[in-house]
Amino acid sequence: MKDLAPILKTLWKNKTGPMLLIMQIAVAFTILINISFMAVSKLHELKVPSGLDEEVLFSLRTNFPVAPDENAARIQQDLLAIQTLDSVDNATAVNSIPLTSWGLFDSINATIDPDSYIAQAGTYTGSKEFIDTLGLEIVAGRGFEDSEVQIAQLDYHERPNSILVTQGLAKWISREDWAGAAGMTVYINGQPYQVVGVIKELVAVWPDWTGNERSIVLPTYHYANEGKLMIKAKPGQLEQAMEDVNGLLMQLPGRFVTDLEKFKDTREKGYKGMESSLIILMSVTVGLIMLTMLGVFGQARFTLMKRRRQIGTRRALGASKSHIMRYYVIESILVAGTGVIVGSLMAVLLNVKLMEIFRVDSVPFEYFLYGGLSVLVASLVAVIPTAYSAANISPATATRSV
Amino acid sequence: MGNYYFKLAWLSLKKTPLLSLLMVGTIAIGIAAAMITITVGYMMGKNPLPHKSERVAMVHLNAWDPAEPISHRRNGEPDVPSMLTYRDTMALIAADRADKHVPFTNFAATIRVEDADVRTAQLHEVRSTSRHFFSVFGAPFIYGGTWSEEADTQGESVIVLSKRENDRLFQGADSTGAHVIVGSHLYRVVGVIDDWQPTPRFYVNAHEMYKSTSPYFVPFESQMRNNLFSPTSMPWDCWGDGPTSTLQEVMLSECVWIKLWLEFETEEQKHEYFEFMEDYTEEQRKMGRFNRPEPNRLMSVTEFLEEEGAVSEENKIGIGFALAFLFACLCNVMSLMITKFHGKGGEVGLRRAVGATKQNIAIQFGYESALLGFFGGVIGLILAQLGLSVLTEMYPEYHANVMTMNFSLMVSTILLAVGTSLLFGLWPIYRAVRVQLSSQLKSL
């Protein structure tokens, strides 16, 4: 450590270069910490389970080309016909398809007073077989009974009074014990509903909504001249089922079938934007580390030119190769370390600002630890080749012109 | 004199190829990152109707459930619906207090040429609106024109196609007067608009702003007459107890589903119109509607873009990050420049000794940093174009317009590169010029 004093002295005497490097590392570190934190949060969101039986599900949108008063009968007929296909396991009509960004949401209140607001939740309604077709798992209470589920005209006179909620929402309704949500009463649009059961997972329709683990399911499917169907194929017969269902539906004149899509593809499409953001964030992270290395390398390399004579003199006066290397390494650690410390302060400030805008959490301490370590390692990796060649300067050549 | 300095700068860069490459590369990467994010942010936030953005406005009426607001704004305040009920839309249009009224909604229908096989029909989104849509929002016609006033009031079955659909259905010929079948209704083509993609597509909500424009347009009233209704794809929102299974029921209901834009001759008239909206609301209150406290809104294009958050916070932060990244890159370049100019101490000493002034030296190095910036800018521009084309692939939900640099952005890229490298060259130049004559000459 007796090198420390001369190193500091040299750094201070020629401070512009090291200062610039410190600034560069600090800025890079600030961005690095915040971006890698955002990337990891994005990764978590991407991994949110949909709760659906994704491997065998597909969906489509179609019309019911009949007189308005025959719509309900048509839907039931279609569903029955689809369910009897050999390749199909089950089918249901739904108001919206998960992760497609088109659907309803409702505010859930604890009492009739809107000030007792609990949370917002995505709203699903489906015909019979909704739970089974989507492959949802009831973890508390019960599912809907057949008598509760109905296909109704879109007027709210035939209002259901029972709903299912996801576990994500149950945690908001009954904070201490989510399972206790089953049996409680909540209010939606001023109307009471009894929570009869809790679904483990059912993702809402908006992939980028941070609350998308909160959904409710109503047992009344409201029909119109168009509808969306979700269909569960028998295992391994997904392609076949899609073809069969399309063929079956298209037998009716005036019919269209569109957005015929495997749920796997729906999911991929829904998350595509977030996935792209993640890739960008990660490549920026890598780019920043590279840039830092480049800066350290450049700085060390080109101060080496200036110091050839100094190093030669030191070698001539008896400094060993390892002394010279140690000098360079300690110097680079000092500079990078200062950069990391300044950068950490800036990163905290930036994070506070970001927290206000995005309501993200504060960056955990580990990010600073690992981020700082990786910047130090990167700058060491960058400086070692230069230090090595500096150590190999022969005293004879370096001091020749003196 | 300029040529001479350029030559000197060029020679100097060639003398230390690795160092020059490092500097140019670092500038290029920083510039590319900055310009990619700036391009996306700029294109997203661009004013799409610069000459009349304050005279074109959207009506937001607070006809909603007294029990609960429709949703909450980002700042937590209760929001007002951005769409209208059918009855309010019709009442406002009938009152005729604005220069031009553009109500619109959309539906999906299968469309084919009149005599073509049924199986060639494709499902498309159709925009149903008024004849003023094209002139207010600036869509240019290549054949024919918009429909007549009668077509709007009588709900005639007439249609305007996009160029792309006209190319597909009529092989690009002038199709005015031809017929297409929309669902099961015969529509007469009256016009074809050119490729048209306002960026952002300011007249719809934020999540649709960067998607492609609709390929077909029909009179609003004709949608009602022909009973074309797409409850599973159109934007709409309901409250209350009314039935809404059919289009007729929706028209009578309190559901909001129609966007209404207006164009005024002067901004003065726009302010008067707001007064009129207040009067209308007051009148409706007497009939028991409009029982919410939040005020109505008449939002100009720029206000609406701001409110919808056309440029998301994420984008703004992205630009901030990229600029910080550019700053880090430039710090790197600056320290490289210091090293570089330091190494040229001998040359400076010699030039000074044979009569060059400090200014001459400064100008010489200035040319060198400008040249570095220029090369960095050009390579950065190429990198940015690559980056933008990769982004276009990665974000298919955004129209490619958002990821495209226009000419002024390209020029700004080069200017930014040259400007910043000159700025960050100032300190290295100052240090180089200050060199002690004697100390340098001694060692030559």
From TrEMBL, chain A:
Q: List membrane-spanning regions.
A: 20-40, 278-304, 325-347, 367-391
Indicate where this protein resides in the cell: Cell membrane
Q: Name one GO molecular function term.
A: transmembrane transporter activity
Q: Which UniProt keywords apply?
A: Cell membrane, Membrane, Transmembrane, Transmembrane helix
Q: Which InterPro entries match?
A: ABC3_permease_C, MacB_PCD, Macrolide_Exporter_MacB
Presence of the UniProt keyword Transmembrane in the record? yes
Please give the GO cellular component terms listed in this UniProt entry.
Answer: plasma membrane
Domain spans labelled MacB-like periplasmic core: 25-245
Question: One of this protein's Pfam families, by short name?
Answer: FtsX
Q: How does it sit in the membrane?
A: Multi-pass membrane protein
Tell me which residues make up the ABC3 transporter permease C-terminal domain.
283-395
Belongs to which family? Belongs to the ABC-4 integral membrane protein family.
Q: What is this protein called?
A: ABC3 transporter permease protein domain-containing protein
Write the lineage as a comma-separated list. Bacteria, Pseudomonadati, Pseudomonadota, Gammaproteobacteria, Alteromonadales
From TrEMBL, chain B:
Q: According to Swiss-Prot or TrEMBL, what is its membrane topology?
A: Multi-pass membrane protein
Q: Which InterPro entries match?
A: ABC3_permease_C, MacB_PCD, Macrolide_Exporter_MacB
Q: Where in the cell is it found?
A: Cell membrane
Query: From what organism does this protein derive?
Result: Pseudoalteromonas luteoviolacea H33
For this UniProt record, give its keywords in alphabetical order, as a comma-separated list: Cell membrane, Membrane, Transmembrane, Transmembrane helix
Give the CC-aspect GO terms.
plasma membrane
The MacB-like periplasmic core domain extends over: 20-210
Q: Which residues form the ABC3 transporter permease C-terminal domain?
A: 320-436
**Chief localization class?**
membrane
Pfam families for this protein: FtsX, MacB_PCD
Q: Which domain of life is it from?
A: Bacteria
Is this entry keyworded Transmembrane?
yes
User: Listed GO molecular functions?
Assistant: transmembrane transporter activity
This chain's protein is named ABC transporter permease
Annotated membrane-spanning segments are: 21-44, 317-339, 360-387, 407-430
